[in-house]
Amino acid sequence: MCKVLGVSRSGYYAWRERPESLRSKRRKRRIRRIHELFLQSRRLYGKITVLLRRDEERIAQKTVARLMRDHGLRSRSENWCTSRDFGRELRRSDGSSSTLYASTKRQPI
What is the torsional sign of CA 24, 29, 32, 33? Predict the structure, then answer.
């Protein structure tokens, strides 16, 4: 296996026995905390960065977004529509689709 990987046998065993780095530990801790906050927020992407900073964690918004993307944490989306969406076919997150049409009849007062 070492020949295929192009490393020496002693280098492989030294790497295998090396303790986990502080960066790796911090990343795992952050992922665990992001996952907790994401589930607490009912799988809605929101103020995860703000909540992490409130816990005195120095982390950037883009880092949170990257970690969430890397670990498959995606926000559940609501089907919002605006007036320009009427008449278009909409794809829902469950795979079904529907077409919206604007009502042309006036409602009685």
Answer: negative
